[in-house]
Predict the 3D structure of the following.
Amino acid sequence: MDRKEFILKAGQGAAFLFLGSCLQSCSSNSSDIPTAPQNVNFTIDLSKPEFAALQGPGGYVYQNGIIIARINESSFSALSQTCTHQGATVQFDAAAGHFHCPRHGSNFDDSGNVINGPAGSPLQKYNTSLDGNMLRIFS
Ligand code: FES
């Protein structure tokens, strides 16, 4: 095997390995994705330090598999934190005003609807109710 042939074969091998790992990580197996929380009913106290991020618009926290974001002074959004594409944890992008999955770039509105994929299904949405400092999240 001469040098040129060696380089060509090494390049083909590297391309094969890269393609294989990409196909494995890019394929979607919905059975591996945790399901959205069901029968949800809990309350959080916004005055507690662990929920301080929710004291102002744009902040968000995770609780019981749910991302809870303060959209503005008077409204919250509570969605399953698990991206419906491949199960990554979504974030709230306050500047953009939507929920964002950092793994492949899906975006969701504050009702959980897909703005853009690759996710093809919405995030489960939960109800919220604020009474003083007590925020209830429920199905
Ligand atoms: S896991 Fe792929 S976009 Fe969220």
